[in-house]
Amino acid sequence: MSFDLVFFGGTGDLTWRKLMPALFQAFRHGKLPEGGRILAVARDEQTDEKYRDWLRERFKEVEGDKRPSDEEFQRFAAMVFYRRMDLSQPEHYTRLKEWLGERQADTVVLYLATSPHLFTQICEQLGAAGLNHSRVRVVLEKPLGHDLASAQQINRVVRSVFEEQQAFRIDHYLGKPSVQNLMALRFGNAFFEPLWRRESIANIQITLAESLGVGTRGPFYDGTGALRDMIQNHALQLLTILAMEPPASNDADAIRDEKLKVLRALKPFTADSVVRDVVRGQYRAGSVGGQSVPGYLQEAKVPADSRCETFVALRTEIQNWRWAGVPFYLRTGKRLAARDAQIVINFRQVPHAIFPGAQRANRLIIKLQPEDGLELELLAAKGGAPGEALAPVSLDLDFDKAFSGAARVGAYERLLLDAIAGKLNLFVRSDEQEQAWRWVGPILDAWAASEEPPRPYTAGSWGPAASSAMVARDGFTWPEEV
């Protein structure tokens, strides 16, 4: 299958840090279809060769085992081209159409790796130039808007130019092998389904923790914050996969229909419940990994009076028969104690304890990063003596070791290959995305109306103490406090 893949924002960080390396890995793994061309477009005046030289230098920053050899890069770079393009000039879209028209590729993928405020302008110009025919797919990078109204505006323009099945709204978390394993875990194994409900599960906790600060992204992050950056998309997508009903098939819309039902069943926030069930924080100077780090307000280009949140923890419920009364806790933050993305399923205690001593409930820990695996915590008697107290034991599965003979496909590699192939399963539909914005909207409104600043927390900790207090109110704890 021949394809043309165009990166708008071809010299931007996302393209050279994530997208081009992911495409190279697909090329190395033999997954990239033959007969493909990769075109980077940006405002810089460069030739194909100068861009390839520039890209070669950028690839030197790729982590060791993923860095291409000179021979590999030469073969990959033969597919890469560059064109100067001013995104505000209609004639430049005409030139792009001419370049693409040099041959009739089976698929044309237009990847908008630009600032979201350019999405509508680019889509309108693509439509005016006739670059919206049935062979075209447009990939929209997050964040898609900054609230419900802006997301709806972008979607209105996208739908006026492209059919819904041509629009690939990307959330790179959905491309992670560990996240894809959530579907396999739930719907490929018979013994989980009878337990996956309110009668057996006490609570579910989703943690997306980063030890890094905002770095050089201060201006972007200060206008975004942790709620928009992580909760509205990544965390909610994980929640929907965990909580959805079994879809009728593996068809993209069958899956996305069930995810949408979960989003619609989430308990809506009010001004009062935001105060009670949402904690926002902002990191102060501290120590991470033995190194002193500055506070958020001391980061480059961050306003000294910023009220941007770098931490969010919240409690919610899903109002349906399967999950009624089960609290879901979501948290994310920067400059936390460790880089750790995991889901903890806390099961209920046994109804009647016949063994002595306090008994810990069973837990299923789904590890997303930096490890990729499953850990099931059980209770067992050490010596098997009558009346002996039980002790916790773990069944630990490391997917990287279990599948060591197979090349594991990275998130962007998987999503780029799916976009080329036209597979929508791991992409977000517009109604999903808008419903997620609709749900977080009252939180944003309450914060905007409040005079309370984010709660401070020390870099290297697990966030404000109020986060632990929120969970403790229900009689539970976060994983690191067990």
Automatic annotation (TrEMBL):
Fetch the Pfam families from UniProt.
G6PD_C (PF02781), G6PD_N (PF00479)
What residues make up the catalytic site? H234 (proton acceptor)
Q: What are the annotated GO cellular component locations?
A: cytosol
**UniProt: NADP(+) binding residues:** R43, D86, L87, K142
Q: Where is the Glucose-6-phosphate dehydrogenase C-terminal domain?
A: 183-478
Q: Which residues bind substrate?
A: H172, K176, E210, D229, K334
Keyword Transmembrane part of the UniProt annotation: no
Sorted alphabetically, which keywords does the UniProt record give?
Carbohydrate metabolism, Glucose metabolism, NADP, Oxidoreductase
- Part of which pathway? Carbohydrate degradation; pentose phosphate pathway; D-ribulose 5-phosphate from D-glucose 6-phosphate (oxidative stage): step 1/3
The protein's Enzyme Commission number:
1.1.1.49
**Molecular function terms in GO for this entry?**
glucose-6-phosphate dehydrogenase activity; NADP binding
Enumerate the Gene3D superfamilies for this protein. Dihydrodipicolinate Reductase, domain 2 (3.30.360.10), NAD(P)-binding Rossmann-like Domain (3.40.50.720)
Q: Which residues form the Glucose-6-phosphate dehydrogenase NAD-binding domain?
A: 6-181
Q: Which HAMAP family match?
A: G6PD (MF_00966)
Described purpose of this protein according to its UniProt entry: Catalyzes the oxidation of glucose 6-phosphate to 6-phosphogluconolactone.
The family this protein is said to belong to: Belongs to the glucose-6-phosphate dehydrogenase family.
Q: What is this protein called?
A: Glucose-6-phosphate 1-dehydrogenase
* Gene for this chain: zwf
